[in-house]
Structures are given as structure tokens and as C-alpha cells.
Amino acid sequence: MNLIAPIPATQPRFHIGEGRYESMVNSRFNDYDFKEEIATSIDIELPEKGHGTYGQLLFDVRWRNRREEILIRDNRCCVICSNSESLQVHHRQYHFILALRQFKSPWDYEDYLMISLCERCHAKGHARFRVPIIYL
């Protein structure tokens, strides 16, 4: 007697949870955002959305050196598709320092928080997911 029911050919073998790709903008933290609660509890105002002078920081020699380290670590290839053209270094999360009311400098992140992506994979990732902001 076979106690295990066979899987019908029309059903997927592995369950992929409903709603994972429901929204084009998700974060790995399910968009739980506690910044207002944190800011209220320590009585500060948060800046407007965005990084302000973040774009300017990407021209800093410290960022160029850090970017080069990450590209070398990842063998100058996109970690998703192995493309070696139009490479960019992606931050897997951003850190906002509440006491200073500013984001951490792009070169101050740990290695594991940065990955090399080609322009195409980077754009696809940002279209589908939001980069989480961690409030420190």
C-alpha cells in the first residue's frame, strides 16, 4: 500500500509562496518601516527621501578605490549573470545614522553588503525590490 499520494503532473513540485512577486517593489523585510516610530521616540526629524549628495560621493577617490576592491573580489563579473560589461557596485542595504541625521558614506560598508552587478541586473533588481534602509 502506497501512503504517499503522487504529485499530479500539472502541479509544481515545489511550492512557491503566493504574493512573493505580487508587487514590483518589495523589500526582503516585507516593507516594515519603523523610521517614523524611531524618529518620534528620539525626537528628531528625518530628512526628505533620497540621499542628497549621494551622487557626488560616487566621484570621491575613496569610493572609486572601494568600488575597485569589490569588482576585483567578484572577478569583474556580475554575480547574477556573469556579464563583465557595464559593471556597477550595488549596496544591499543603506545605513542611516540617526545621531548624525545622514546616510553612511558609500565606501564605509562591509564587503558582504556590496555586490557587483551589470547595469541590466542592477536595474532589474531596483525595479523589483527596494533597498532596505537600516536606522542606526
Structural account:
By secondary structure, the chain is α+β, with helices and mostly antiparallel strands. The chain has a domain at 35-42 and 51-135. Helices cover 25% and strands 14% of the residues. The protein contains four helices and five strands. It has a three-stranded mixed sheet with strand order 3-2-5, with no helix packed on it. It has a two-stranded antiparallel ribbon with strand order 1-4. A hairpin with a 4-residue loop joins strand 2 and strand 3 (102-103). The termini are far apart.
Describe the structure in brief.
This protein has 136 residues and is α+β, with helices and mostly antiparallel strands. Helix content is 25%, strand content 14%. The chain contains four helices and five strands, in the order H-H-H-E-E-E-E-H-E.
The Cα radius of gyration reads 20 Å
Care to count the β-strands? 5
Order of helices and strands, N to C?
Answer: HHHEEEEHE
Uncertain residue segments: 7-32
Per DSSP, what share of the residues sits in E-state strands of 2 or more residues? 5-15%
Termini gap: 59 Å
Strand order of the largest sheet: 3-2-5
Q: Roughly what is the average pLDDT, rounded to an integer?
A: 74
User: How would you characterize the largest beta sheet?
Assistant: 3 strands, mixed
